[in-house]
Every structure is written in structure tokens, then in C-alpha cells.
Amino acid sequence: MRVLLVEDEAKLAALVARGLSEHGDVVDVVGTGGEAVSSAREGAYDVVLLDVRLPDIDGFRVCRRLREERVWTPVLMMTARTAVSDRITGLDSGADDYLAKPFAFQELLARMRALARRGPVPRPVELEAGDLRFDPAGRRVWRGATEVSLSARELALLEAFMRRPGQVLTRDQLLDLAWGGQREVASNVVDVYVRHLRDKIDRPFGTTTLHTVRGLGYRFSGEPG
Ligand code: CA
After folding, report:
1. Ligand 1 centroid – CA 94 distance (Å)
2. Nearest to 225 by CA among 207, 204, 213
3. Which residues are found with C-beta within 5 Å of the ion, ligand 1?
């Protein structure tokens, strides 16, 4: 398969590239995040092996940028950092899998094969509905070009809606999704927060995307209407 290896440590890059070549893969090596973005954008690679610590922009940002540009080549992140938060950041930035250094070469090959089988499936990092955009990793929201400031709870509620466009969600379902099913929370708190959300994502923009469904709950229509 065709592999883009992004690794700034020359010795390690040479070692991995040689191993892959001997295995029959075709490998291009780059050493910076900037080169990684332009090469991945232009080359038809089956998989990108992406180091996290790079001299210019880090691997997380490289990955986010590729996904923003609709480059869906499977990405396997490689890093010495094994903290759970780093793994989560990697996956949230659109990486497909994660390999902690030092790794066994056989494991690298196995994970690459698994990713290449999946192929370049679109998997946007951001949720989009009309001109509303939600970045789940960065916890940020935009309506058109305007960034909207939301509290943690409002973000959780909006995410619940945006992941289920067109579905009627009851207050109990919304409590489960955005409040973690806290039973001590009164169900009218959902109504209060839906109002807050409308005041931030709809009303200032003259749109209506959060609809009340009488006797049932709420529905997020996605497209303004
Ligand atoms: Ca590095």
C-alpha cells in the first residue's frame, strides 16, 4: 500500500520506512506538519502514519486540518505520549487509531492493514446543520461566521440535538443525554435550557431550528425553518 510517514526524528523515520519498504509498501517520508498536510492532500495514500510531536504544527492539528479539507485518508497517530487525554485528543481530531511508541513493528503493520481496509470514509470532525457548526472536541459553536458562546450544559444539550436531527426527544431523553440522567434535576430545567439555546443559536439570527413538539418534547430540525 502507499504510505505517508510523517516523522521528524530522522533515525526513527528511516527505520520505519525501511521496514515498510521491505514489507512491500511504498513510503513517502516528510518531517513537518506543513509538508504532511500538502502531501496528504495531493497524494493518493492508503494510510497516513502521523507523529504527534512535530517541529511546526503538531499531529493533532495536522489531522484536524486534513479532515476540515475533506481528506479522509485513514490516519494512525504515533506518539510517545500515552496519556488518556492525548489519545482522546487524537481521536477527536479525526485520527482513526493510535499507537504508542515504542511499538512492535508487527503491530504497526496489523493496524495499518486494518485501517487501509476501511478506506477513505468521510467522517467529519464537526457536526453541521445548515450554517450551524459544532466542534465537539474544542467545545465551540458557530452560526455562519459568528461564534456563539455557550455554557457547558448548553453545549451538551446542543450536541444531543445535533447528533439526532429531525428526531423528537422527550425531556427524559434530554436529561439522560445532557445531564447524565441526574434524577434530582427537575424536568422543567430542560425547558429553561432549550430557551437559553434558542436565545443564542436561533433568535439573534432570525432562525428557528429548535421546535417544541406539544405533549412530547423537542425536535431539532437542522435546517432553519
Ligand atoms: Ca517527533
Report:
1. 19
2. 207
3. 8, 51, 53
